[in-house]
Structure to design on (665 residues):
């Protein structure tokens, strides 16, 4: 079922939790609401469920206006952040609850309910735990039971609040894949809330990035990564180096460091350059276009890559810079902790002070993509 | 097992044993001795005299009135306490904090003062009392008055037990139940009530204990009419003032018995609670081994 939000807003006292916003979710889509805490993502999810009322606007499920429909009658599945399993009921009773509270006339028979429950428990691969109580389960098991319980009434909309927040990395990864395959199999429309960009990018068909009660950007994970449309989205997606620059002597300058823009016309202004860590080349001396001196403070292997942490020399950056290389490249480069290197971006995104808040993509063609420009 | 046990902070043997001895001694002297002496005094004349004292019409009436007031107070405060706890833990509204404070008034005010307030309000010259008098409804110096003050004095017990528990449990299980389609009643009966069951029983036990034993507030509004508005605690006092010490102690022993019975129930509830917790934990441990 598709979900359409029109002009939804919400205030808690004086706090504007959601500014009026619109969002269209297609049938069968999996949408990730991504944002830092306080961005309004959970409030939006609870408004879709009907656990909170919006101050303005309308919610449509398909063609049905559900704005005034009570939670009980919206028939959505909801998975709570802390699972909210009924602590005094067995796992089987938890899953059966949604079926047992159906009015007598429409309720399936006891045998039918039992059959459905054991089917659901098989689906979440926890049939052997039917007679356990929630407090006897691990976090990952609780999460799967919560999901089975939410799916028992066969909702067409499934809402998940930080579904994997409290789980360790390995279980989280397994459950993500499992949820994705379940989604593809059962074809419900799902919306989940997360503050973890990896989770949002891996799981969603489209990601909704939120901050301060506003939607910053809605896009597919690949497009979002390729074209973040604001500094916020860029910062939030992470793995990015910032060069805060003032326009002096026909180049972007920060202390002793400078960078000459490849294209001249509209960019002759103060602003910030964002450079992804894998789009940064390091050399042992500066060139005419870029003079960004850095010291290597740490070299850390991260899976298939190696992360090099860099501290600025003679210029200012709030955070350490990061560059990533493959293990193989790093060996070729022979970089060592404590060496001084000069960074050159292959690609950067420029946010001008006088711009409209969206970035201008810059490439330095003198550096062929993939080259490391390390003159030894 | 390691046979060497390091000393905990403050566990010097001398301090430890002198503290324990002192505490046990004081408990005996202040708590146990009076209790034992009540029964000793009550049975001074033997079993038959004891039964005789208790089966006098005035005594029987006092017992009956006390039990009736308790039997009415408990369900009323049960419902009231649950409603109160629910509203302050599940809803946000202006004055919520004030309401939580108001719940404690019966604990803070001396019962005698509470009795006097009711007398002022419901007595024949009071605001409500005049109207009641016109309609021939006797509240003060009759059992409805006793019931009213008893309800007043005991109303915090259930709510006070439930509020912290319900706050700690949060509303998410209830939200989950409603999303799954539960009606209000299904939600209460199948989710909320089982979660607060033990605290509720505990609150009821305390309410009952206080309802049976309340003296101060009841003394003010009852009028002490023998065989009509005398509850058991008042009866004890009247008998004692009449120099019928033995009869007074017989009635007092009944109150003490009720108190002991309440303590037993309370211990039982706590034990059940502990057991259901540890049973689950043990099961969990044996399964994870």
């Amino acid at each position: 079922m598709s979900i359409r939000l029109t002009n939804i807003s919400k205030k808690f006292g004086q706090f504007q939790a959601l500014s009026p916003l619109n969002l269209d979710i297609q049938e069968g889509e999996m949408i990730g609401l991504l944002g830092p805490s306080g961005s309004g993502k959970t409030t939006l999810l609870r408004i879709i469920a009907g656990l909170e009322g919006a101050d303005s606007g309308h919610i449509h499920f398909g063609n049905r206006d559900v704005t005034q429909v009570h939670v009980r009658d919206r028939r959505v599945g909801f998975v709570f952040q802390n699972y909210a399993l009924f602590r005094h009921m067995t796992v089987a009773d938890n899953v059966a609850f949604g079926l047992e509270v159906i009015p007598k006339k429409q309720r399936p028979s006891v045998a039918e309910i039992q059959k459905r429950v054991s089917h659901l428990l098989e689906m979440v691969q926890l049939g052997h735990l039917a007679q356990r109580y929630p407090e006897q389960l691990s976090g990952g098991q609780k999460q799967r039971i919560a999901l089975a319980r939410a799916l028992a009434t066969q909702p067409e909309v499934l809402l998940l609040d930080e579904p994997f927040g409290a789980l360790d990395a390995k279980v989280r990864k397994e459950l993500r894949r499992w949820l994705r395959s379940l989604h593809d199999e059962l074809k419900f429309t799902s919306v989940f809330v997360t503050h973890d960009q990896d989770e949002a990018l891996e799981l969603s068909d489209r990601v909704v990035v939120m901050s301060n009660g506003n939607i910053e950007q809605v896009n597919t994970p690949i497009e979002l990564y390729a074209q973040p449309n604001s500094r916020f989205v860029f910062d939030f997606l992470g793995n990015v180096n910032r060069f805060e620059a003032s326009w002096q002597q026909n180049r972007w300058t920060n202390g002793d460091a400078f960078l000459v823009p490849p294209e001249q016309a509209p960019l002759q202004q103060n602003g910030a350059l964002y450079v992804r860590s894998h789009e940064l080349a390091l050399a042992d001396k500066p060139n005419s276009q870029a003079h960004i001196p850095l010291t290597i403070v740490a070299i850390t292997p991260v899976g298939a890559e190696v992360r090099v942490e860099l501290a600025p020399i003679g210029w200012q950056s709030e955070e350490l810079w990061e560059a990533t290389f493959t293990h193989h490249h790093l060996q070729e480069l022979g970089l060592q902790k404590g060496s001084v290197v000069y960074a050159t971006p292959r690609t950067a995104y420029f946010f001008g002070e006088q711009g409209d808040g969206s970035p201008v993509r810059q490439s330095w063609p003198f550096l062929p993509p993939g080259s490391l420009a390390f003159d030894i | 097992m390691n046979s060497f046990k390091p000393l905990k902070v403050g566990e010097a043997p001398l301090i430890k044993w002198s503290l324990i001895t002192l505490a046990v001694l004081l408990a005996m002297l202040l708590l146990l001795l009076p209790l034992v002496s009540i029964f000793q005094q009550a049975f001074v004349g033997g079993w038959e005299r004891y039964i005789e004292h208790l089966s006098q019409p005035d005594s029987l009436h006092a017992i009956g009135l006390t039990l009736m007031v308790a039997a009415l107070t408990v369900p009323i405060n049960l419902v009231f306490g649950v409603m109160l706890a629910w509203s302050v833990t599940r809803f946000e509204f202006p004055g919520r904090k004030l309401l939580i404070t108001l719940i404690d008034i019966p604990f803070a005010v001396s019962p005698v003062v509470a009795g006097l307030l009711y007398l002022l309000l419901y007595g024949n010259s009071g605001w409500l009392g005049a109207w009641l008098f016109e309609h021939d409804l006797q509240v003060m110096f009759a059992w409805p008055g006793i019931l009213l003050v008893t309800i007043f004095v005991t109303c915090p017990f259930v709510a006070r037990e439930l509020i912290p528990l319900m706050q700690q449990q949060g509303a998410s299980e209830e939200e989950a139940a409603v999303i799954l389609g539960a009606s209000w009643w299904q939600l209460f009966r199948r989710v909320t009530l089982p979660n607060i069951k033990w605290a509720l029983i505990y609150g009821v036990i305390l309410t009952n204990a206080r309802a049976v034993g309340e003296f101060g507030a009841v003394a003010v509004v009852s009028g002490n009419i023998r065989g009509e508005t005398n509850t058991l605690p008042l009866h004890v006092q009247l008998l004692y003032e009449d120099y019928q010490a033995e009869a007074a102690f017989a009635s007092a022993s009944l109150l003490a018995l009720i108190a002991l019975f309440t303590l037993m129930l309370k211990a039982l509830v706590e034990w059940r609670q502990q057991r259901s917790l540890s049973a689950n934990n043990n099961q969990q441990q044996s399964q994870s081994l």
The radius of gyration of chain B is 24 Å. The mean pLDDT of chain B is 87.
